[in-house]
Design goal:
With 128 residues, this protein is mainly alpha-helical. It has one domain.
Length: 128
């Protein structure tokens, strides 16, 4: 998803902000509203400005989160491949080309599930 443009690219060369003419609305309990407003004030912002910034930041973070997840999955795959190949090599055994192909296929099919399993275990430990 493309990030929104936040300034006018007017022909006169000015960099004035684009007019904000769309409104979002959400309902909160009184205690939620007070907590949000207090938090926004602690950042020296109005609740509306803080909410807008938080929503736009969340949208921007989504792309980086997907990339981070992909990188983590690939690292888990590399770790799995190393763990499966180093032990026999350190013992002096040789791996046949077919064995290596099987290991590659196995890592490709299981790395995503293993990465999710590791993340789930990590989040369980953090909750304790």
């Amino acid at each position: 998803m493309e990030m929104p443009t936040l300034t006018n690219a007017a022909n006169d060369g000015s960099k004035r902000p684009i007019a904000r003419n769309r409104i979002l609305s959400a309902r909160f309990t009184e205690s939620e509203y007070i907590a949000l407003e207090t938090f926004a004030w602690s950042k020296s912002m109005t609740l509306a400005d803080w909410t807008r910034d938080a929503l736009i930041q969340e949208m921007a973070n989504k792309a980086s989160t997907n990339l981070e997840s992909h990188i983590f999955t690939e690292l888990v795959g590399i770790q799995m491949l190393l763990m499966d190949t180093l032990e026999p090599l350190l013992r002096g055994d040789k791996l046949a080309q077919e064995q290596v192909k099987v290991l590659f296929r196995q890592v490709q099919t299981t790395k995503a599930a293993k990465a999710q399993e590791l993340l789930a275990r990590r989040s369980q430990k953090q909750e304790k």
